[in-house]
Amino acid sequence: MKPVVVLTAQYPAVVREILAGLCDFVEHPSEQGRSDDDMITILSEADAAITVLSDPLTRNVLEANPGLHMIANYAVGYNNVDLQAARELGVTVTNTPGVLTEATADLTMGLILAVMRRIVEGDREVRATGRCVWEPLHLLGSGLTGKRLGIIGMGRIGNAVATRAQAFEMEVIGVRRDESLDELLATSDIVTIHAPLTGQTHHMLNAATLRAMKRGAFLVNTARGPLVDETALCDALDDGHLAGAGLDVYEDEPSVSPRLIAMPNVVLLPHIGSATHETRNAMARIAATDVALFLRGLKPQNIIT
Ligand code: DGY
């Protein structure tokens, strides 16, 4: 009997091409907000699984599925996986690093441009009125040239954002996520965060650190929602301490705060940082190759456990 690989979403075709002949597939349509019980059922037949970042791979789920030996998490982030439990239970976990860098950095620049130049507000206006009106004081935004961009987290994505920002003649200040944020927060016109979500980075931007940002600054987050205390962010936007925000991720995905939805100076995207054909195919190739290696008794290349 062939091993069973459970696909918890529909992935690019290259997954099945790489794994063809090596296993049988069980595919589940993508579904947000899965509970532990949902995952226990979905993974019940699995020897290995390719999972998405919204799948909770908790101790509960892993313990309930002793036949599951390998998880290829189709993401660079792995905050949805209890790595400690996986290690203890001997479950191999892999991720898809490296190939999301450019796509996520591009989208970060897109959000910076959108929020500072009020691109989405302009689009909404043209659609609503059916007119294009030029007026000297209409929809004025902020220029990027000469502005200071504070990058929290100078890993691959942070560095790729810095390269792009320099091409826009922005002044870049970057700190590693374990360094002091004081100068960055006090002096940056825009702050963008590129850190993994861990116990240490949860609510890294909270009421105090958001207040420490320069008045009138913008915040961009394409990393993980819970890095930012969303209630504190809404407060800072509401009272005008921050001028706007560009968000691709949310504290309580798939829900998005109605307060954010009501704010015209906030651009909201549905977690599409890595959503290019090139990147999603590359992620699929990496995840499936690691599953294939595992099924052949070889060592996967991107083990995080
Ligand atoms: C990741 O890989 O961690 C991204 O958030 C998915 O796009």
Describe the structure.
The protein has 305 residues and is of the alpha/beta class. It folds into two domains: 4-99 and 277-295, Rossmann fold, CATH 3.40.50.720; 101-268, 3-Layer(aba) Sandwich (Rossmann fold), CATH 3.40.50. Helix content is 35%, strand content 15%. The protein has helices at residues 14-19, 36-42, 59-64, 83-89, 101-116, 119-129, 156-167, 182-187, 207-211, 230-238, 258-261, 277-295, and strands at 4-7, 24-27, 48-51, 70-73, 92-94, 148-152, 171-175, 190-193, 217-221, 242-247, 266-268. Helix 10 (230-238) links the parallel strand 9 and strand 10 (242-247).
Provide key terms for this protein.
305 residues, alpha/beta, Rossmann fold, 2 domains, 5-stranded parallel β-sheet, binds (2R)-2,3-dihydroxypropanoic acid
The coarse silhouette is elongated
Q: What is the CATH top level name of the largest domain?
A: Alpha Beta
Small ligands present? (2R)-2,3-dihydroxypropanoic acid
Radius of gyration: 21 Å
DSSP strand count: 11
Give the full name of the CATH homologous superfamily of the largest domain: NAD(P)-binding Rossmann-like Domain
- What percentage of amino acids are in beta strands? 15-25%
- Would you identify the CATH architecture of the largest domain? 3-Layer(aba) Sandwich
- Give the structural class: alpha/beta
The largest sheet is: 6 strands, parallel
Number of helices: 12
The SSE string, one letter per element, is: EHEHEHEHEHHEHEHEHEHEHEH
Uncertain segments are none
The portion of residues assigned to helices is 25-40%
Enter the CATH topology name of the largest domain: Rossmann fold
How far apart are the termini?
A: 28 Å
Q: Which strands sit side by side, in order, in the main sheet?
A: 7-6-8-9-10-11
Q: Please indicate the count of domains.
A: 2
Mean pLDDT: 97
